[in-house]
């Protein structure tokens, strides 16, 4: 299979400017999967999704059917759709909610039916005004036409969907922080155990939390069978996934690809995908799974888009966001920009993240601003070690004394926001230490503002 021969599952309607409207959605097989699901038993729907081997597309990559099976056998139970897309470089869920919101609603309803849920909550990030508007209108239209609410499609099954707008906190992308926010509290991640959502979730009841792209995939699976979906792609997480490609490529954007059937090289250089590096420049580095993922380099271009090989190389596919940096990029400034983001987004609950992230940002800024000291380099690693103990291993850095090891890394915080501030600093400092030294010796970026 070539990179250009791709199957559209979630993005099948993206070329239709009216796909967000109910009539157009129904005319293109919309809500047909819900009708079919309601003619099945919940167990049959669950088994179909399990057979599809669909994994979560929000970052963790946990098996969707497996997650559903973990629900405690008590009621009420809830389904929560995580639309608080916050990871730097990720913009797929926003596009899905803006252009095909009924697909998300249909997938959420099928999920609720399969797990015998009591209610669905659809949480949309606060800054996504158009997504909120489109999802809200789609939900109102679905209620008006009998696709949501009481006696859906005359089946005797009823389900309400609650639309909730967030306030723009990055940490709410973490599922337990999202549940805290839904309950009207400050978005502090919960400790697991005991607060696994499947056992103690929303309002301390069993809860399934699924990502927008994940549930948007489910209608296609129900219409075409789990076996058909599992036959797409390859590797540990078959099927299709949306890759968010940004940075220094000629064709940035969202691309639906068959997992593991293409490589990062295909994604960046195929004319129908990234189209190569801008201005004919050379690749310097790329982030394979959103801003919190350890950086990759030319050595990793031929890795398939599969969580297994990527994890074995010391990083992750995460949310599917690939950020490309060409050889004009200042590694110090790029890393500092990400560190600044994660330090700012700390919820403040864990001391290593609240204090350590802030210190990392201050030291990085000092170096970028031309006030750095050589001892700051060891200080950065020392502060990082208090947040995420031990090195971030990487197979392509044997000269640094680091060996390959699967992701994830160790951490001293409840969630991954703390280590996320360490990752870009460690990736840049380990691979491009000479640039940090140049910044210190030259009292700033030696190539000036154009280098940034």
Strand fraction equals 5-15%
Shape: globular
CATH topology of the largest domain: Rossmann fold
Order of helices and strands: HHHHEHHEHEHEHHEEHEHEHHHHH
Q: Largest sheet, described in full?
A: 4 strands, parallel
**Sheet with most strands: strand arrangement:** 3-2-1-4
Q: Average pLDDT across residues?
A: 92
Low-confidence stretches: 393-406
Radius of gyration: 22 Å
Distance between the termini: 38 Å
Percent helix among the residues?
25-40%
The CATH architecture of the largest domain would be: 3-Layer(aba) Sandwich
Strand element count:
8
Task: Summarize the model shown.
This protein is of the alpha/beta class and 452 residues long.
Outline the structure in words:
The protein is of the alpha/beta class and 452 residues long. It folds into 3 domains: 22-230, 3-Layer(aba) Sandwich (Rossmann fold), CATH 3.40.50.11540; 240-326, Ubiquitin-like (UB roll); 331-451, de novo design (two linked rop proteins) (Up-down Bundle), CATH 1.20.1440. It is 39% helix and 10% strand. The chain has helices at 22-27, 32-38, 42-52, 64-69, 92-99, 101-114, 129-144, 175-182, 212-224, 226-230, 264-269, 307-312, 331-344, 351-368, 375-387, 417-431, 433-441, and strands at 78-83, 119-124, 161-165, 207-211, 240-247, 253-258, 283-287, 321-326. It has a 4-stranded parallel sheet, sandwiched between helices. It has a 4-stranded mixed sheet with strand order 6-5-8-7, with no helix packed on it. The longest helix has 18 residues, at 351-368. It is globular, with a radius of gyration of 22 Å. It starts with 21 loop residues before the first helix and ends in an 11-residue tail after the last helix.
